[in-house]
Amino acid sequence: MARKHPKHGPYPEDAQDEDDAPAPAVPCWLCGRPLGKSIVLHHPVPKSRGGRDTVPMHPICQQTLIANFTNSEMQRHGMDVEGLLANPNVRKFVDWVAKKEPDFTATITRKQR
């Protein structure tokens, strides 16, 4: 049987009224564009190499990193974005995607083996 009154009191309706301002847009770790609806928490140092920290990224940006770097290379660069951007393929991608909207998706070239 349903309760007539809530067990722990009413829901705090006043808290929703105070937060009318939208949350600030978080930038992507790689390209710096604001994040959209799709967010990926990426491990700059792969978990298989002992990485624990995560950074927010666009899915397309994460796919680009995976296609261009091995886990060993990602471990060497660590949290250094400038080192990753020194790769000509990644720099070309970031320059291209800078003009796109935050939720932009496209197919990425596969990893070259």
Automatic annotation (TrEMBL):
**Which lineage do the record's taxonomy fields give for this organism?**
Bacteria, Pseudomonadati, Pseudomonadota, Alphaproteobacteria, Sphingomonadales
Report the domain of life of the source organism. Bacteria
Q: What is this protein called?
A: HNH endonuclease
Region annotation Disordered: where it falls in the sequence: 1-23
